[in-house]
Design a protein that fits this description.
- Two copies of one chain form a homodimer.
- Chain A has 239 residues and is α/β, with parallel strands linked by helices.
- The first copy, chain A, has a single domain, classed as Rossmann fold.
- In chain A, 35% of the residues lie in helices and 20% in strands.
- Chain A is built from eleven helices and eleven strands.
- In chain A, strands 3-2-1-4-5-8-9-10 form an eight-stranded mixed sheet, sandwiched between helices. A two-stranded antiparallel sheet of chain A has the order 6-7.
- In chain A, β1, α1 and β2 form a beta-alpha-beta unit.
- The longest helix of chain A has 14 residues.
- The N and C termini of chain A lie far apart (35 Å).
- About 4% of the residues of chain A have low confidence.
- Chains A and B meet through α10, α11 and β11 of A and α10, α11 and β11 of B.
């Protein structure tokens, strides 16, 4: 299948590499192709420049967001950061029409604050916007009524999402939520191809609120286990 | 030990019964003893009148909130509902001075709305207040600076908190957070007496934010597994 990933960050790269490995044709969307290719230094997270990744994964096709969305057979993975996702996706609503959009964004504000306003004993405390009575996924779905939005992947680091077996042999839980059953089936199939066996359907897209709000305790668990950025642990719903 | 539980709801009863079973002297606090004893009908959640519980557990000593707090050797469990907790606890700040207060409240608003403002396909969607940049536990700690607040129990139904072995032989995870290490040790000892073996310290009380915000996905998981009110499942952090 031709699968599109929007975004060039670490999470988007994890999906790109895994989907190539699974034999898919991988199209990656970025805001401005020349700008993305012109970078030669690691970003603030220490992620190497994208052209290094492209050099290692020459089968990836890099296009603009709109071109990449239009080129997908059906499934598009949204790896645009949560703060910018609604605006960036709204601008390509026509190209996303009829597609399944799997969103794993967390609508953090902290990366966009000049000063982190919530210092904590273990560093910074993110703020979510929206939160509690709305979610990023619902905002995207309202902005793109002709696209079928599925929330998933969001309760894990993307390196673990594409390689669940790296933790406890893969015996942990992944969640999906969305208002379109067929779209959720496609997300579930993708997760199965990644190696997930315990995939729990949390129902309609409104459950994205809880999935995004889980980010707080996920960070706290990661810190408790000694990871500064992103934990290497799974979450198992034990029945 | 003389251990006090503030509140007479289902969660408070679960702790009361278990602590009696473990050989502790159990003191229960309520706003107005006569009003509590006068009720003869189940409440809106279907919980039987408290006098039925007292008849079955005659060793429980029922007192006012303030008397009960003062009577504890050291540990007080807060089972007052999240919406009323700060006001009720502030009124007995002197009696709680120097005590360890274990709080499991979720600051839900929905029970106090005449109309549920967030209908969802699976019922109602709670709203939390505070949320994201503050927590109930931090509010309580600020209101009671001479009391050592620990957040725990909150990621589970209280019937499971007092009986972890009822799920998967007890192999799932409980969290504690708080700014006083000795107070956290006491909460941890209590959890061990309840049967918990996987107790993860999430650090300072600021982590209560994530623990309270987890309520959304906990509800969604419960619904997904087929429970209407409260799920019978555990959450295991898989390393």
């Amino acid at each position: 299948m031709k699968i599109t990933i929007l975004g060039t960050g670490g999470g988007a790269r994890a999906h790109s590499a895994k989907l190539l490995e699974l034999g898919h044709k991988v199209i990656v969307g970025t805001r401005d192709v020349q700008t993305t290719l012109a970078r030669t230094e690691p970003d603030v997270m220490g992620t190497p420049p994208y052209r290094d990744f492209l050099a290692e994964h020459p089968r990836v096709t890099l296009m603009t967001f709109g071109e990449a969305a239009a080129a997908a057979d059906e499934v598009v993975i949204n790896g645009i950061d949560g703060h910018n996702a609604v605006a960036a996706l709204s601008a390509i609503a026509d190209q996303l029409q009829g597609k399944v959009l799997i969103d794993y964004g967390v609508p953090y504000l902290y990366a966009h604050q000049p000063v982190h306003p919530w210092p904590t004993p273990w560093g910074i405390m993110p703020k979510l916007e929206p939160c509690d009575t709305d979610s990023l996924a619902e905002q995207i779905q309202r902005a793109l009524p002709r696209t079928r939005v599925v929330k998933s992947f969001v309760t894990q680091e993307q390196t673990t999402v594409v390689d669940p077996a790296s933790i406890a042999g893969g015996d942990h839980t992944m969640f999906v939520a969305g208002d379109d059953l067929d779209a959720k089936d496609q997300a579930t199939s993708l997760l199965q191809a990644y190696g997930w066996s315990d995939i729990l359907d949390l129902g309609p897209l409104v459950s994205a609120r809880g999935m995004e709000m889980y980010a707080h305790i996920h960070s706290a668990i990661g810190f408790a286990l000694g990871y500064q950025f992103g934990g290497h642990f799974g979450l198992k719903v034990v029945r």
